[in-house]
Design goal:
Elements lengths: L4 E7 L4 H10 L9 E8 L5 H8 L3 E4 L8 H13 L5 E4 L8 H4 L6 E5 L11 H7 L4 E8 L9 E8 L4 H26 L1
Parallel strand pairs: 1-2, 1-4, 2-3, 4-5
Antiparallel strand pairs: 5-6, 6-7
The structure holds 5-O-phosphono-beta-D-ribofuranosylamine.
Length: about 190
């Protein structure tokens, strides 16, 4: 019997990737049918992603980093909150915090992040703009394992796309690619586990 595969998502903002992952894995199709998102956690109490998750019946929790003086204390309480759900995989989806050893050393399951560039190019919060402006005809999306260095862990999946002629269309193309690639990345881990 296949064991249930439990995902926890961390986010800080709009949550369109989280919504897409929930939509996909709660659709109960073929290989994904034992996979579910058990909890969505945000460091930002106003994150729209919380409402999106709730609208799909997924439990949410808020842990505001502003309530903590030390990063390590926030990370340690965040680890407790994540571990309460006993996830098999943790997904960062627009989670705007770098995680320290206080979190990473407590977590024994893979942690993935999605980033809207062809890493190692264009790390950081302005990756879509930065990659649109560079000289290449291509941009892309990467899903990588999380380490304590920003956007730097081993790449699990990466795909490139030609750049649209304006940033608005490019941004849309990048987000569409993100939705496809994050599901692929999760399935890759799931099938290898
Ligand atoms: C995405 O572009 C993701 O790659 C980046 O942050 C953005 C989050 O968007 N890390 P959303 O909150 O999933 O809509």
């Amino acid at each position: 019997m296949i064991k249930p595969f439990n995902l926890v998502i961390l986010l800080s903002g709009a949550g369109s990737n989280a919504l897409n992952l929930i939509g996909h894995f709660h659709d109960k199709t073929y290989f994904d049918k034992h996979t579910f998102v058990s909890k969505v956690i945000s460091n930002n109490p106003d994150a729209k992603g919380l409402l999106k998750a709730q609208s799909k019946g997924v439990k949410t929790a808020i842990l505001n980093h502003k309530d903590f003086i030390r990063r390590e204390d926030f990370d340690s309480v965040l680890a407790n909150l994540v571990l309460e759900s006993s996830p098999n995989l943790i997904l960062l989806a627009g989670f705007m915090r770098v995680l320290s050893e206080a979190f990473l050393s407590r977590i024994k399951v893979p942690i993935l992040n999605i980033h809207p560039s062809l890493l190692p190019l264009h790390k950081g919060a302005h990756a879509i703009e930065d990659s649109f402006k560079d000289a290449s005809q291509f941009g892309g999306v990467s899903v990588h394992y999380v380490t304590k260095e920003l956007d730097s862990g081993a790449i699990l999946v990466q795909e490139k796309i030609p750049k649209a002629s304006n940033i608005k269309d490019y941004e849309k193309d990048i987000h569409d690619l993100e939705y496809k690639l994050y599901v692929e990345a999760v399935l890759k881990v799931l099938k290898g586990s």
